[in-house]
């Protein structure tokens, strides 16, 4: 038994964001010579590779624009967002808003626009940057890119798709999951009917297609286009972090649409996926699993990844804030303890991204090809704000919430 | 100090091949209903997935044909090879010998012919099967597929290549390395001048391009098309197992061309890559490394893979048999001990494929998407035959070779 000090927690996330994580990126990632950001940063923040990945460029533009819009009109944050925004506008796409996957340091394209998530993160970035600057050009980039995304939903990889058409048509959880969040992100650019339609469609895809009550209430990564389970490597795949991240997007939709039952469902699924994905031997949440317990294709299946744990914190805390579920709070405490203990680097700023099954550092980096200025600071921001809301609702200095604690 | 009993070793590899590994595949992998082989087999040999991967289908055809050609005219082996050969002939390609990457159980194509190694293993398979059966159709498939490979060397992935042309043209070690072996594999199908040209070109690529004396004598996975080092994720990448496997192919070329200096170089590189790739903390050979010590892109970098260790055994033993290098023999002993201790399953047949850094089983499978009836049995066969040669040369029952032994 232990008291949970929500006020202290609020301060912990806020301080980590403002005094540790954001300063790290401002100090180490800005490419003042060519624009954009370095994201391949070693433990101390030194650049070890200069390639620029569109996912991460866009996510950092989004992060600093969002901070500027929601927290404080800080000029340094806006300048940082603009450094990436201008670089992306000038080099990130082929001239028709087809967003490359990666560029070299100077902005020359390296990898073709095969990846739909380059588009989704560009949309998020330019929508927030448009809001921050009032610049209509940015908003237009966001809106037009969003239209291209919608036109690609049936075959996101286009001509780079290596699956033979027709033999085993599967659909994947990632795009509806991301659209779930993207809708509210760019709400100010969409008309009400389009937003409504998008939200309903995402809720349908997640709750009626990828969520499987017959499997005990878990979310699978791939189903057939008819919505059936598939006993194949892809069809057996589970990605607990992915499913759990989608749950806080869904809770946001539940709040927006005033549907408490949707929030309740999202909380239940969050807890179920945690029970399923938690490593009972070493702690932490597995990266990939097979729903029939077979070996996965993914050799990294047992690794512990930063984003999986941070997204879980958001879903658990948000779930608790809406429902006051004790189960949610217990899991939150457990994941919080694991995450802060293993991912945070106590000697140097920012957090590790990749741990082995035992929770030991696997790659001593703070940023790379996939880890940038995104999940850690967004998670800190989200948890800070949820805790702020919990604290203001309860309206006392220190909330002493008794929790069962293992 | 310890005596090395080459006669006992010869018997160990031979017995493992004939009494353990080949019977496992004959018992569990044959799809008598639809043809071809199951390769996704769990610890006990039960099928957990029925997809058919062209690399593995072709390699098993090659393995059983080769055994039939080189060891014994065993009808069961030939029938096994034919089961896969006919399946591949009928379903493995698009009608024009463009070899798919994978098929479903019935032979419907799943993944397009984007992968050049589907072609190289098909060539090996049909060349050996042609030899085994005397069937000219098989030989023709091999020869024609080989011509297609040569026509694709500049851009093996063709339209599925996601790299933007021109920005950062790199060339990769894998294809020249595989061709190095393929030349001798299909020698009976090539005219002498073509074979000579192919051999010289492979030797040049490996020794003058990918082998880097200025880095202390290691082999890198990618260089620029001008043969320069590249300080990029791909350009920094090392794959010790890959480099070491190439060295026994090179020794074979050295023997074929009667160039002892080439064999000596290959032995030196084998030892250098082992010194470089050996995990001083937990033992075993790393899967991927970065030549500047930066974090790799590959999350599986520290894992210990069966093929890396088995190919190393072949190169070390072959190197020893040619040069009688004590260093080679010491390393052989070390890798032999690690490999048999960690990869062989003492309770059930066949070997594990994937261990974590500590040498613990990561995936409890005997076959999967990438591990089939190939590296383990080929390695057992190669070591058996090399030891047989060592033993026959020394012409005594037990060779007592004093080796230093850690």
Structure, described:
The structure is a homodimer of 406-residue chains. In chain A, strand 2 and strand 3 (47-49) form a beta hairpin. Chain A is built from 13 helices and 17 strands. A three-stranded antiparallel beta sheet of chain A has the order 3-2-16, with no helix packed on it. In chain A, strands 4-5-6 form a three-stranded antiparallel beta sheet. Chain A is globular, with a radius of gyration of 20 Å. Mean pLDDT of chain A is 95; it is low at 396-406. The first copy, chain A, is mainly α and 406 residues long.
- In N-to-C order, the SSE pattern of chain A is EHEEEHHEEHHEHHEEEHEHHEEHHEEEHE
User: Mean pLDDT score of chain A, rounded?
Assistant: 95
Q: Report the sheet-strand fraction of chain A.
A: 5-15%
Helix run count of chain A? 13
Estimated radius of gyration of chain A? 20 Å
Arrangement of strands in the largest sheet of chain A: 3-2-16
The shape of chain A is: globular
Largest interface: A-B, 42 and 43 residues
- Main sheet specs of chain A: 3 strands, antiparallel
Low-confidence stretches of chain A: 396-406
Distance between the termini of chain A: 8 Å
How would you classify the quaternary structure? homodimer
- Helix-strand makeup class of chain A: mainly alpha
What is the strand tally of chain A?
17
